[in-house]
């Protein structure tokens, strides 16, 4: 199977990786936008959880992660709901982890389980994603998940180039089963990109506004029985179609925007990154390197 990733280029998949990608539970991620509601007002920001999940797996493979960890990276977002983190905003979940509570259930998907069983992969090994430290590692450190969504988001909004991405990927290395960087230069660059993404994209007025509008609309739809919470287990377009059966979503969005939002604040997860760097065969955080 040939796959062209928009930021990492052309790659070949076979075996269990290819078969997982072809399952319906994984392909559903093609219809879930990485940026949540933002594509409704900025159509160019249309990258998906499908692309991100494959990207995370590719980073893990690049730094020498095991097949099991590559699989964990590939499926880590299979439980994401429609519009990504919108349901977290609706339910006021500060940790933005609604999808994580569904992960164990989705992992039991019959088609996915059959693929794992065929290749003798014990699904209990994949149940706790936190143990895969190349995939998930707490802030302020690096992880394949954190790296891919930063590079992918920043490229999609036109702030970094493919050349910069290629350069940065060459600076990644695994140490003690976690991702560190080869030099201070890589660490400084990534910290700048991550800081920009957090302050100028996640917290951007346009992004906050559409998420607040969609939060208002979805709450109204839930209260009036137009949709149910389980509809979020489908995808963005399923949810949009169901809303449109009762009211034109685009007109609804424009009406709320025209009336103005009473509360433009949206609680989002606080993020700061302090990458680990190899310095004279020692591992130091960027902040520690800068003090020297």
TrEMBL record:
Short name of one Pfam family: HD
HD/PDEase domain residues: 45-159
Any one biological process term the GO annotation gives: dGTP catabolic process
GO molecular function: dGTPase activity
InterPro entries registered for this protein in UniProt: dGTPase-like, HD/PDEase_dom, HD_domain
Domain of life: Bacteria
Protein's recorded name: HD domain-containing protein
Organism name: Sphingobacterium corticibacterium
